[in-house]
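task queued by scheduler; priority normal; single chain, no ligands, no partner chains; default sampling; output format set to structure tokens
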Amino acid sequence: MKIDYLYGIHPVREGLRGRRQPLELFVDEKGAGQRVDELLALARERGIPVRQRKRQDLDGMAGQPHHQGVVLSMEPFPYAEIEDLLLVWQSTGKTGRFLLLDGITDPHNLGAILRNADASGCQGVILTKDRSCGITNVVDRASAGAVEHLAICQVTNLARAMELLKKSGFWIYGLAAGDGAQPLFTTDLSGHLALVIGSEGEGLRHRTRELCDGLLEIPMVGEIASLNAASASAVALFEVVRQQLAAVSK
């Protein structure tokens, strides 16, 4: 069986609290501190074996030395099927909030975006299998462990996923600039909504843009004309949250 290794205090903590099965917790044999003691207590609660290891052994497991003295072995990341994401969302009776990523290849950007998705309460995140980074230990660390609490799907055909969302009652908006894009803050985003974020360099692919119900633009008032994908996703996702919460409170 393929084994994943999470490293760092926050990712390991969320790995011990998340839905997939931890296998073993490895800690630096030279001691730890209060934060590692908290991880040891979490491991004991879940019945996860704890092993002491030399620093260089932990370096090898993590693939680099910046692991803060803790590494957690895990079952492989459990990608969901899009049909299952929709069924789980429908069972909640809540307003839908999904995020689609069209070609995010940098693991640090992907991790930051997934952290935003978790913080904004997305019920599902859809990635493309091609031209996209998958869930790795680098992504997990960049997300501060948020991926352990997200339902994430990988699809070979993003267009089909968009059509399924539309049939389920979602409006789909792509984040873009110019070319008829509507201002983010004056567009009604209060219903079931899926937001599409494109790659850093190219943005949304032509076919993806065509399938969107509309394009959204973040107003820029400074000298820099754009935000990176992670920052833009945070602005857009929390505007969706704001509008959806306002609609519920009416």
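post-processing summary
- Residues 82-249 form a domain with the Alpha/beta knot fold (CATH 3.40.1280.10).
- The first helix runs from residue 9 to 17.
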